[in-house]
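hi! just following up on the protien thing from before. the input was this:
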Amino acid sequence: MIELARARGIYDLLEVAEITEWLDRSQAQFDLIAACDCLVYFGDLKQVAGPAAKRLKPGGYFAFTVERGDRYPLHLTYSGRFTHHPDHIREVAVKSGLILASLKEGFLRMEGGVEVTGLLVLLWKAGDA
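and the predicted 3d structure came back as:
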């Protein structure tokens, strides 16, 4: 994937790293952090949202998707991916010092010919936009 991204020639910087470690060590500040269909490999999302919140500028957003689950707070599925209950997302926002700006259900992808329902999440860091 990194080689495909590099070939596009549109990115200022590309790095290969484990997300939580990178967020912890980085001093960069962002207006937007987006994670599409990758947080399904994390159980408790506080381990990502907390470090992401530290990297957001005041008024910044953390946008991500996860698979929606009915089991609270989360569930490890046969695929090795986690599903997350909407209440877990709400708790993660609060514990990370972020505000839940939007939480909607939506289509993520097809898997085995079946639509995967996800949560489309937008968290906001209070402050001047």
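The two ends are 32 Å apart (CA to CA).
The chain has a mean pLDDT of 95.
cheers
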